[in-house]
Design a protein that fits this description.
The chain is mainly alpha-helical and 105 residues long. The protein has one domain. Helix content is 79%, strand content 0%. It contains 2 helices and no strands. It starts with a helix and ends in a 15-residue tail after the last helix.
């Protein structure tokens, strides 16, 4: 079992897309304040809601991918600790320390 690094890569990619959607949301909100045409206002409002929801979706998927990767990494380290305990138990006992002067007992 090895950690799932593709999930970490996916989280990085997904989180990098979110700021662009939030920036677009802000641009639509500012344009909405300046707009007087009802059709433009409706268009900007719809796009603002859509971009904000898309940005939140990116962050939600990032969170899910990080959670899954952390769970798999925890399981991996738990397995490593388990193996380390087994190998410690199976290793032969250490030889007794030498006597002073190097004479056998």
């Amino acid at each position: 079992m090895k950690p799932d690094f593709p999930k970490l890569a996916w989280a990085t990619t997904s989180s990098s897309h979110a700021p662009a959607y939030f920036a677009q949301t802000a641009e639509h909100a500012l344009a909405l304040l300046r707009s007087t045409n009802p059709a433009d206002r409706q268009y900007l409002s719809n796009n603002m809601v859509h971009d904000h929801a898309t940005g939140r979706g990116c962050l939600r998927r990032t969170s899910e991918a990080l959670r899954d990767a952390a769970e798999e990494l925890g399981a991996h380290f738990g397995f490593q600790r388990f193996l380390a305990q087994l190998t410690r138990q199976e290793s032969p006992p250490a030889p007794p320390p030498p006597t002073p002067g190097g004479q056998p007992r």
